[in-house]
Amino acid sequence: MLLLLFTACLAILGAYFYRFWSTRQKRQVELQKIVDKKRAQRAESVKFAKESSEKLDKETRLKIAAMEYSELKDGLQSGKITCIDAVRTYYAKAISANEKTNSVCMFVKEAEKWAMDWDEKAKDPQFQKPPLFGLPMSLKECVPLEGYDQTRGFVQDTFRPTETDGVLVQQLKKLGAIPYVQTNVPQSLLSYNCSNPVYGTTNHPMDKTRTSGGSSGGESALISADGSLLGIGGDVGGSIRIPCAYTGTTGIKPSHLRFSHRGVCGSVPGRPLINSNDGPMSTRVETNVDFLRTVWADTWITEQDPYVPPVTWNEEAYKSDKKLKIGYYVDDGWFTPTPVCQRAVMEAKQILEDSGHTLVPFRPPRVPEVLRMFLRAVCVDAGTFLSKKLMNDIIDPLLYTQVVLWMVPVPIQRFLSSIIKVFFPRLGNLMDAMTLSTVELRNTYADIEAYRSEMAGLMVDQKIDALLCPVTVSPALPHVSPSKLFAGTSYTGIFNLLDYAAGSVNVTHVTKQDELDLEDYEESDPWYALAKKGSRGTIGFPIGVQVATPPYKEETCLRIMREIERGVTGK
């Protein structure tokens, strides 16, 4: 009788899995057809941009292409350069960058018309040009742009164009900027590689086997490969800062309080406390400063979204010569960075001390606990939303490790955690991250609020104005590593949890000596071994540092970043 019952259960289970497998296979065929259709649409988009760029004579294109941000902006304002010539030049530059990096999702065809419309208005002698008149800007694919998809790397979300521009895009257009290209992202946005089944894998401009970071990896690759002067990324756990650090570019994640989130679809909807925010990315800190100075010049954002406080740009804070007290650390007590990342912080420390600032040792308290809180809050529902979405999609192979973790029921994760802690304590710690209940999630939100209060107290009591630390634990990694090395986001994720402003600026490059020093880097667990292995062969790769300040202190953050940049470049 028991044998018969057991056999019946096996049969039912087998039938269920066969039905599940056959349904999924059928769905995969349907999705692949959608991918083929979308890639054909992208090919048409590239063809359009190429044909448009070829309408511009080579001499003019090369002249505009060689201009720095300020030169191009001045040329557009003076009328020496037309908007359509600028757009066609950057179509050409983005096509070239895309051939090296696969960073482009779609070219914005309407950019031609917008440029021509601005040029027509400029013929009127009474016309007052807006401050970003004619400037071509690249956008991360998840930034809402009317008429274009926000797939976040999901096949199921293709051919569902956004009906309305997001508030930031509305403002960009009002200020005269021209969005001309969308850039690639990792599937789900919750990864610091940059690959999805719709548009493929974006690679580092210096090495096709390595990632440009994520989730704003398309932006960092395009900018680093000279396909854009200024772009908009987004950041919920390091998604602007890590790509910038990997590619030698610079960017800032403001506190989420300073931009509107109306109409923005994040990685997980309905997520409080851990908020994504848009931010500028470029090759120069001054470019990011000019952008934020412009968009925060008035309270227009607040007028469109009453949830954004009416805080305008503070030029006095940015231009201040007041000497600051800055806390610094090279190791957060959770994941020791590779030697070159530590060296970069110490070099930035020296630059700031030479400028007259006071640098003092500082370490955020209880980072292992903080990372566990961060992961619990960023996933909200223990990965249920993402798991369901991914199971109805083609899963990008570079996301497999994360998907497996999301698919394991939380009680089983907790049970396995108690065993794994014996031989891999750090992994065991993070396997306790996903929430078991709404009660546990509420307690986590309370813990986050308490931690924010604790950090505010520490900063005030010690009179610390800003923090200086690594961006991440290694140079740009091979494509397969980020999903296995999510523990390395502790240096960036903490500032999303705190909702601080945080930016990345390039300081140095990997040297032969750094490679030799790497041999002494201790491989005490598989994550350290992976960081060490992934860091080999990166001589010449850029290394950035991170500057962080409390909310509404973005101008101070940018001031410090600019001082570091000036100390590194001499200009």
From TrEMBL:
Q: Name one GO biological process term.
A: fatty acid catabolic process
**Superkingdom of origin:** Eukaryota
What Pfam families does the entry give?
Answer: Amidase
Domain Amidase span(s) in chain numbering: 85-558
The protein's matches in InterPro entries, at most eight in alphabetical order, are given as: Amidase_CS, Amidase_dom, AS_sf, Endocannabinoid_amidase
Reactions that this protein is recorded to catalyse: N-(5Z,8Z,11Z,14Z-eicosatetraenoyl)-ethanolamine + H2O = ethanolamine + (5Z,8Z,11Z,14Z)-eicosatetraenoate; N-octadecanoyl ethanolamine + H2O = octadecanoate + ethanolamine; N-(5Z,8Z,11Z,14Z-eicosatetraenoyl)-L-serine + H2O = (5Z,8Z,11Z,14Z)-eicosatetraenoate + L-serine; N-(5Z,8Z,11Z,14Z)-eicosatetraenoyl-glycine + H2O = (5Z,8Z,11Z,14Z)-eicosatetraenoate + glycine
Catalytic positions are K140 (charge relay system), S215 (charge relay system), S239 (acyl-ester intermediate)
One MF annotation (Gene Ontology) recorded for this entry = amidase activity
- The entry's keywords: Hydrolase, Lipid degradation, Lipid metabolism, Phosphoprotein
| EC numbers, comma separated | 3.5.1.99
Sites binding substrate sit at L189, S215, V236, G237, G238, S239
The record's annotation in PANTHER family points to: AMIDASE DOMAIN-CONTAINING PROTEIN (PTHR45847:SF11), FATTY ACID AMIDE HYDROLASE (PTHR45847)
Which protein family is named in the record? Belongs to the amidase family.
Q: What is this protein called?
A: fatty acid amide hydrolase
